[in-house]
Amino acid sequence: MKAKKVKSKTITDAAANFVTKTKSLFVSRPGLSEDVVRMISRQKKEPAWMQARRCEAYNLFKQKPLPTWGADLSAIDFDSIHYYVRPSDKVNRSWDEVPQEIKETFDKLGVPQAERAYLAGSGAQFESEMIYHSLEKSLKKQGVIFESTDVALKKYSEYFKKYFGTIVPATDNTFAALNSAVWSGGTFLYVPKGVHVALPLQAYFRINSAAMGQFERTLIIADEGSSVHYVEGCTAPTYSSDSLHSAVVESIVHKGARVQYTTIQNWSNNVYNLVTKRASVHERGEMIWLDCNLGSKVTMKYPSIILRGEGAKGEIQSLAFAGRGQHQDTGGKVIHTAPHTSSRIVSKSISKGGGRTSYRGLVKVAKGAKGAQTHVACDALLLDSRSQSDTYPTMDIKEQDVAIAHEASVAKISDAELFYLMSRGLNQEQAMSLVVNGFSEQIVRQLPMEYALELNRLIEHEMKGAVG
Question: What is the pTM of this model?
Answer without folding.
Answer: 0.86
